[in-house]
Write a structure and sequence with these properties.
Elements (H helix, E strand, L loop, with lengths): L11 H16 L1 H15 L3 H17 L9 H18 L9 H12 L2 H24 L14 H89 L4 H22 L18 H11 L3 E5 L9 H21 L5 E8 L3 E8 L3 H7 L9 H13 L3 E6 L5 E8 L1
Parallel strand pairs: 1-2
Antiparallel strand pairs: 2-3, 3-5, 4-5
Helix pairs in contact: 2-3, 3-4, 4-5, 4-6, 5-6, 5-7, 6-7, 7-8, 7-12, 9-10, 10-12
Keywords: ATP-binding, Kinase, Membrane, Nucleotide-binding, Phosphoprotein, Transferase, Transmembrane, Transmembrane helix, Two-component regulatory system
Pfam family, one: HATPase_c
InterPro entries: DUF7134, HATPase_C_sf, HATPase_dom, His_kinase_dom, Sensor_HK_TwoCompSys, Sig_transdc_His_kin_sub3_dim/P
């Protein structure tokens, strides 16, 4: 199973610098209000000078909290919203720094719970109504008096225009929060599936090791029994006919070497108890397996070595199991009417096995994938365990031209 690619996101340091850049860009407003307040304050101590100092204070209170909008979205929103409320009470005109309010609404909708996001949206809509009334009431009528009779044709468009900012900010924040939660759930699900696949593969490998250990018990036991019989025969021959003893001893040595090689290869897989005593399949039994498969209705062509070909018993057993599992997969996954071909080739150095079919090769591989291990299904995992025990190689996958292919090679 391929690992899910995580979407690109800013790290903690990147998010901090982004907030600094965002707030810093808005901070450029502060020097303008500061210079204006100092100029007016130096020229005359009038209401205009006082208003400019109030402007500067409100701008600072509205912008500075944005640096902490991710870590403390509710606190930042409360401070910014409170400063905007004071602005309605103290001033009769908007400030550029009020851009901080939709940013604060976005932060609540993105980083806080949904109910707090809706509460911030409701406050923003109420503020749009209150701010519009405050600013339009301060406008002068044509005769110079204060306008107190604001018509709906003027008031409603202004309210709707101002309400667009908190609504858009809340929608973007809620969408970002939902998307982040969805992506996190996908990543968590992918991690869970990966762990489950690893556990299934490990369980399959453990079961297969135990099965190999039980089967190889018979192989090693058979080798040792042959050694005992040949050793007894060599002792008897040495007493009756000394010329026969070397041949018997050579048989003992050859059998002992083969049994020792099998024990070394599978020493880590041996388990105590539950051993089987029934004879295990040999290389010649593949022909019987082929005939049984044909009798089951499968169209099967086979190219097998001569019946008398001698190979180590552990290799023969593994070859039989590989062909058996591959034909079983053809029956289960290749689809109705699929034909298969079995080729077993033995030379002086290696034994090669190839099983191909013309069924649903690629589709079957995807449906049987066991977690990106390079093998398909627990049966093929078992093949890998057997082949690896004999220092061989196993290849599985779609066959050229369609179908599925299993290829194994083991040294002799």
């Amino acid at each position: 199973m391929e690992e899910l690619v995580r979407p690109w996101r800013l790290g903690p340091r990147g998010r901090w610098w982004f907030d600094v850049l965002l707030a810093g860009t808005l901070f450029l407003i502060i020097p303008f209000y500061a210079i204006q307040a100092m100029v007016d304050g130096g020229a005359a101590q009038d209401m205009s000078s006082t208003n400019h100092f109030v402007d500067l204070a409100l701008v600072v209170v509205q912008l500075v909290p944005l640096l902490w909008r991710r870590r403390h979205p509710l606190i930042v929103y409360t401070v910014v919203a409170g400063a905007c409320g004071l602005q309605v009470l103290l001033l009769d005109y908007p400030l550029v720094s009020q851009l901080a309010y939709p940013i604060a609404v976005y932060s609540v909708a993105r980083y806080a719970s949904p109910r707090w996001g809706l509460a911030a949206l409701a406050v923003g809509l109420f503020g749009s109504v209150l701010g519009s009334y405050d600013w339009l009431s301060a406008l002068e009528a044509p005769n110079g008096a204060t306008r107190n009779d604001i018509g709906g044709g003027t008031y409603v468009p202004v309210v709707l225009s101002l309400a667009t900012f908190p609504v858009a900010a809340w929608a973007l924040g809620a969408l970002a929060r939902t998307r982040a939660a969805y992506v996190d759930s996908l990543i968590q699900r992918n991690e869970q599936l990966r762990r489950e696949a690893e556990q299934r593969a490990e369980l399959g490998a453990t079961q297969e090791r135990a099965r190999i250990a039980r089967e190889m018990h018979d192989v090693v036991a058979h080798g040792l029994s042959v050694i005992v019989v040949q050793a007894d025969g060599a002792r008897y021959a040495a007493e009756q006919d000394p010329t026969v003893a070397p041949q018997a001893l050579e048989t003992v040595a050859q059998t002992a070497r083969e049994a020792l090689a099998e024990m070394r290869q599978l020493l880590g897989l041996l388990r105590d108890g539950d051993t089987l005593t029934r004879p295990q399949p040999r290389l010649s039994d593949i022909a019987t397996l082929v005939e049984e498969t044909r009798a089951g209705g499968m169209e099967l062509a086979a190219t097998l070595p001569e019946p008398g070909r001698a190979v180590p018993e552990g290799v023969a057993l593994t070859a039989f199991r590989v062909v058996q599992e591959a034909l079983s997969n053809v029956r289960k996954h290749a689809g109705p009417g699929a034909a298969a071909k079995v080729t077993v080739t033995a030379d002086a150095d290696s034994l090669e096995i190839e099983v191909t079919d013309n069924g649903r090769g690629a589709a079957a591989e995807e449906s049987r994938d066991s977690g990106g291990l390079g093998l398909v299904g627990l049966g093929l995992i078992g093949m890998g365990e057997r082949i690896t025990a004999h220092e061989g190689t196993l290849e599985t996958g779609p066959a050229p031209g369609g179908g599925f292919r299993v290829y194994a090679k083991m040294p002799l």
